[in-house]
Each structure stands twice: as C-alpha cells, then as structure tokens.
TrEMBL record:
Organism superkingdom: Bacteria
UniProt organism field: Oharaeibacter diazotrophicus
Keywords per UniProt: Ribonucleoprotein, Ribosomal protein, RNA-binding, rRNA-binding
GO biological process, one term: translation
Protein known as: Large ribosomal subunit protein uL22
GO CC list: cytosolic large ribosomal subunit
SUPFAM superfamilies in the cross-refs: Ribosomal protein L22
C-alpha cells in the first residue's frame, strides 16, 4: 500500500545534494558557488580547498555529498563528474536590533541561505 513512488526530477546521469540554512547571505554564497559552476569535480574541490572564503568549507562539504550520492546511490563514475548546477536560494532572515544614539534603534538582519549542487556524469571525448 502507500502512495506511489515519485518520479526522479533529475536525469539518470545526475545526482544532487542540498544544504539548508547556511548562515551566510545568498549574495556571498553565490560568489563561491559561481567559482565551481561547470568545472570538473576534482578541480572544483581543489578550488574550494584553497579559497579564502569562510563559507567555502560548507560548499565543499555539499559538493562531496553530491559526489557520494552519485557514486553510492546512482552508480556514476566519480572521475567523469562535472558540476552541472550550483545555485543559491534565500532562507529565513533573523531580525535583531541594536541600540543607537538618542533612544533610536538600528535594525540588524542575519540572513540564511540554501545551497543546491547538481553533478552530472559526462562521457569522455578523446
């Protein structure tokens, strides 16, 4: 019984990993995501390892998760994977207030982001 299995939204040669509620603004996270878009996964991992951005550590974790999903869940070859998509979405925004001069208040916004990475297996053309 139960409901029928949902169709896969990705192709058979693709795998995905999603990280939700990263404590960084979407604009800053998109700078790091743009660094790896369209690259082979080994090059992308090297770029993230040597990036000076703090959030690059979390992006690297998400990319490694996508690679592991491709290998273990979909039986794809790790050596021929390419980052097809790396996109960023907005999550919640915590609103805080800081006291300012003359009884006024300064609003502080602490944004969160969602990160989705899709890897695709490409056939090698020699």
């Amino acid at each position: 019984m139960g409901k029928p299995k949902r169709e896969r939204s990705l192709a058979d040669n693709e795998a995905r990993a999603v990280t939700r509620s990263l404590r960084v603004s979407p604009q800053k996270l998109n700078l790091v995501a743009a660094l790896i878009r369209g690259k082979k996964v080994d090059v992308a991992l090297a770029d993230l390892a040597f990036s000076k951005k703090r959030i690059a550590v979390d992006v690297k974790k998400t990319l490694e998760s996508a690679i592991a999903n491709a290998e273990n869940n979909h039986d794809l070859d790790v050596d021929s994977l390419v980052v097809k998509e790396a996109y960023v979405g907005k999550a919640l925004v915590m609103k805080r207030f800081s006291p300012r001069a003359r009884g006024r208040v300064g609003a502080i916004q602490k944004p969160f982001s969602n990160l989705t990475i899709v890897v695709r297996e490409v056939e090698e053309t020699a």
